[in-house]
Amino acid sequence: MSSASAPRIAIVGAGLGGLACARGLQLHGHSVTVFEQEISPGARTQGGTLDLHADTGQVALRAAGLFEMFRSLARPEGQEMRALDPITAEILHHEQPDGDYAPEIDRGQLRDLFLESLTPGTIYWGQTVESVSPDGTALRFRDGATQQFDLVVGADGAWSRIRPALSAATPTHTGTTLVETFLDEADAHHPALAHLVGNGTIIAKSGRTMLSAQRNSGGHIRVYAGLEIPHDWHLAAGLDLDDTTAVREHLLTIFDGWHDSLLDLLRCSEGGFVNRPLFVLPVGHTWDHTPGITLLGDAAHLMPPFGIGANLAMLDGVDLAAAIATHPTIDEAIRAYETVMLPRSTAAAQACADLDQVIASGAPIEVDGIRRQLNERLLQPSDRQT
């Protein structure tokens, strides 16, 4: 599609997928407007670290022209993973870094790469989209204003306001909830825990109960308690999530009997506790093609956190941008994009569901195996169509 035709394109959501799409469109000479409900780039922390896979996330970064900048920030050593016995803390399984297959990078650093690559004024911060018209031509905002577009891209995550125009599907709770906390400047303030975590990730599990810790850049360590509990477990427990002491004591009771070095990840945490229930969309989530509107990332294919979601979101974004650049009409571009994206996301979602059952069976967690099995299910880069 020639940029001279100047289609009016809106992306709802300034997460990694939406930003990758915006970057791709601008590289191809198209104007785009991104609407984000957060009031500024620094309104909240952007979560932990991501492993970017060679055949998905890294492909997207190359297409976005950001691969070398990514390499300057990435931590290949972050691929290290050790599974520990919860009672003795002995190493049960150890995965060493495998070259540059899936180096780690902080989510916030990656988002900043995309933000800094966009034309100033591309993103409208503090703009909450309430809905889109069924034909995708009009966005309605919380303040009652509306704007007209030729294409609306829903990149607004799990609880997308754009998805209902295409699909009645809603996320369902997996039965697992993560409770997140962190340690800051761990090398200086908590050297024993920094040594325990090492360069990458440690995981200890008993059945569906898990405790993990993952090194981020700058000596920051993210800690996750994974529990088979309802998403609103704290209400039944009579807990206020803002009461850090009470939540800590509750978690320590759950993990009673685990090795002291693992319990210290909770005892010494500095960041309070954040409830992160895991939700998913149905495997094979799809919709009838509708001119003028489409989805990408979690809005299209919300999956368990097995390290593929962000990779696919970015790949979705650059694939959609390339389709718009290489097809004569918006409608043809959307059809071409969805023809590739929907089967790819179905394969990944099914792989995640299968692997979740393996983990539920009590099998050891082997992250490298999970990564490779997921990527084996996906279309290879040479099979991508735009």
Strand content: 15-25%
> Any idea what the shape is?
globular
Placed side by side, the strands forming the largest sheet appear as 5-4-13-14-15-12-16
Work out the number of β strands. 17
As a percent range, the share of helical residues equals: 25-40%
- Report the order of strands and helices: EHEEHHEEEHEEEEEEHHEEEHHHEEHHHH
- In total, the number of domains comes to 2
Given this structure, which CATH class of the largest domain is correct? Alpha Beta
Question: So, the CATH homologous superfamily of the largest domain?
Answer: FAD/NAD(P)-binding domain
Mean pLDDT: 91
Distance between the termini: 12 Å
**CATH topology annotation of the largest domain:** FAD/NAD(P)-binding domain
Oligomeric status: single chain
Task: Determine the number of helices (DSSP H or I, runs of at least 4 residues).
Answer: 13
Query: Which structural class is indicated by helix and strand composition?
Result: alpha/beta
Helices and strands, with pairings:
Elements: E1 9-12, H1 16-27, E2 33-36, E3 49-51, H2 57-63, H3 67-73, E4 81-84, E5 91-95, E6 104-106, H4 107-117, E7 123-125, E8 129-132, E9 138-141, E10 146-148, E11 151-154, E12 172-183, H5 186-189, H6 191-197, E13 201-206, E14 209-215, E15 221-227, H7 233-236, H8 244-254, H9 260-267, E16 274-280, E17 293-295, H10 298-301, H11 309-326, H12 330-360, H13 367-377
Parallel strand pairs: 1-2, 1-11, 2-7, 4-13, 11-17
Antiparallel strand pairs: 3-6, 4-5, 8-9, 9-10, 12-15, 12-16, 13-14, 14-15
